[in-house]
Every structure is written in C-alpha cells, then in structure tokens.
Amino acid sequence: MVIKYRVRAVWMFSGVMWLVVAVLNIVVLFMSRDVDLPSFLLTLITLTIIVNLFLSLAFLSIHTIDYLRIEKGFLSVHRGFPIRRKKIKLSNVEKGRMTDGNLILYVKDQRKVELKSKSISVKEFMKLKCELSQYFSIE
Questions:
Q1: Contacts (Cβ under 8 Å, ≥6 apart) of 24
Q2: How many domains does the chain have?
Q3: Less crowded by CB within 10 Å, the N or C end of the chain?
Q4: Domain boundary among 63, 78, 98
Q5: Which residue range is the domain that position 45 belongs to?
Q6: What is the pLDDT of residue 110?
Q7: End-to-end distance of the chain based on CA atoms, in angstroms?
C-alpha cells in the first residue's frame, strides 16, 4: 500500500513564492551586469537562485512523493529531504492512538511515531487506519 502526500494550497503557494524569489534574484543578477560587483556577491546571488529553484520544485512536487508505504510487514514514513525514511516493523507496534486528528504509533522500544492526517486525504487516512488495524489496535 502506497499513500502519497495530498495537494495542499499552502505548499503550492510556498512553491510559487520561492519561484518568484528566484525570478527576482535572476533580475537582480542581470541588472548587476553593468555594476562592478565583487565576484563573491555574484556567486552568492547565483547560489541563492539555485536554492530558491530547488525549494520551489520541492514544494510544487511534494504531492508526487510517497508519504507512507506499507509492504512486507514494514511501515515506511517519509520525513522530508534530506532525512531518510523511517522504517518500522509493524509487528513491533504495540498500539495506535488518535490524538488531535493524528495517529500516534507506540513502538515496543518506547518510541512514538506520529502520522499526520493533514498530509494525506481523508479517504487515504481511513484506508490507512483500516490497514494498520490488521496489525495492532487503534484507540
């Protein structure tokens, strides 16, 4: 079972805003051609453009990323770039509890893993709860 991030307006808005900032930095870079700026400043502006474009692409394409994967008795949770996915063996989960609309998994080694319901659609969240209830109880 694979669950992707849902499209959220705040993520799309953030992606567009980072794109606007990148375009403004490109304009500044072209306008500074006639002015004698130190090379480190031009390098800084160029690096800022690259970072802005990366952030824009990340926000605009987040809905294509798998937030959760359940396969072969493991739950894999996306935690964002550059952090690796968190893998949890479902047989090690003692129980699940709904808190503030989120699902908190209590793992046997005293860890808690929070699955955010805002990140996925309501329909997908219901399917997730149904799938996970086969492995442990959800309160």
A1: none
A2: 2
A3: C
A4: 63
A5: 2-63
A6: 80
A7: 22
Which stretches of the chain score pLDDT less than 70?
none
Query: What pTM was estimated for this model as a whole?
Result: 0.78
Same domain, 88 and 130: yes
The residues, any chain, with a CB within 8 Å of residue 42's CB and separated by 6 or more, are: 29, 32
- Report how far residue 81's alpha carbon sits from residue 5's, in angstroms, rounded to the nearest whole number: 14
Summary mean pLDDT of the chain: 91
CATH code where residue 108 lies:
2.30.29
Burial class of 119 by CB neighbour count within 10 A (0 to 12, 13 to 18, 19+): buried
